[in-house]
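The methods section describes the discrete structure representation at length, but only in general terms. What matters is that the chain and its backbone geometry are given together, residue for residue. Nothing conveys this as quickly as seeing an actual entry. For illustration, here is how one protein appears when written out as sequence plus structure tokens:
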Amino acid sequence: MIISELNPQRVWKNFYELTKIPRPSKNEGRAAEYLYQFGKKLGLETIKDEVGNVIIRKPATKGMENRAGIILQGHVDMVPQKNSDVDFNFDTDPIQPRIVDGWVYATGTTLGADNGLGCAVAMTVLEADDLQHGPIEALFTIEEETGMKGARSLKPGLLQNKILLNLDSEEEGELYVGCAGGLDCSATFRYSEIPVPAGYTGAKIAVKGLLGGHSGMDIVLYRANANKVMARVLLPLLRDLKAELVEIEGGTLRNAIPREAFATIAVEKGKLDEARKIVARIEKDARAEFSATDKDMKISIEEAPVAAKAIESKVALNMIKAIYGCPSSVERMSDAMPGLVETSNNMAMVKSADGVISVHSLMRSSVDSAKDDLAEKMRAIFELGGAEVVFTGGYSGWKPNMDSPILKEMKSVYAKLFGKEAAVMAIHAGLECGILGGTYPDWDMISCGPTIRSPHSPDERVNIESVDRLWKFIVEVLKEAPEK
């Protein structure tokens, strides 16, 4: 069976078409154009704004003209993550979906259910001629995964309706009414190259086999961070064995917990066995500590040809100390909502090249002052290590409105359909609602979606039955929308 034959077929057909179009964040233009032409072919009013967001308007069905208009919103782009042994180009290759035990996965890559399925639901509403609904606007935004450019750039007055259903949350049966704000931290260490001393040999170190995951939603699972593990390995090698760091690279995306990290060092030949023992000891300890979350963790060291040059010793050691010392996990849990992460940091990417070591972190918090305090902590540690620190991309969270009329309506519809209450939640991730609500402060907003596991990683998968339930829910919500 192919995924376009799953139920509901109309939704899965549209999602399958999106999987054929390469759409990594910042290179999703072909998918946005596909959606633009999709609206045009349906004969609907279709707009593409100056940054590439697509808006498609569908009039109310007969007899529903007095209902409040609803905006169905999703983002076009996807996170491009793959296993290191998979030959795949996200800019040119179509995703290869597969069905396993009631779930849809990709093959060694991210699937793009985040947020392709949300887009597919909106597309299906637009093309369906057998639904009952008031005025519909579908808003497809760009570059959500790499800074929320589409949401940030949306002009006031462009959307006409005032109820927004964001289709980008990842647990069916949960209605989200709040989200965290975010802030990016870039720390830059500048170095000169030094000659590797005579009598040294090279060694390559790899941290692999970690689960990774979404840096917001999965941070509460306390999974290992490959960059933090690598710093733990390198600190005694550089400090105690006087090894030299040749290069380092870990993580690939700002909003994904890094799964792999790699480093090349130079160490005295007579100390290579001691280096192996240090790595073996740390691997044993780390595997035991993370046995419940990252049981397949592997830390290896292999002798390699020695490099002629290395990173300036003091800079390399200070950088490793800073990474080792900086927080990179849950910083504080919420006092207001049990089980919700309030503040966190993800040490996302580390890379050395051309005289520069860059360290990129993504901080999140539902409390702006706590986010700012964590930023100052990060600044203090990195500046003590000699780095230049810059903060970018800051945005506030989305404050819950428990008196929301559409929330009341959606809770009632869910209970009627499924015989149980929908959970009302806030999320430790940067939903576009926070930004969109700043531009359109009178919007009444809810986020919902199918059940997706391990987004932002090659283990991303979506539960098939949850997509069917989501579709039935959205159809009924549109039918029962309040009067204007």
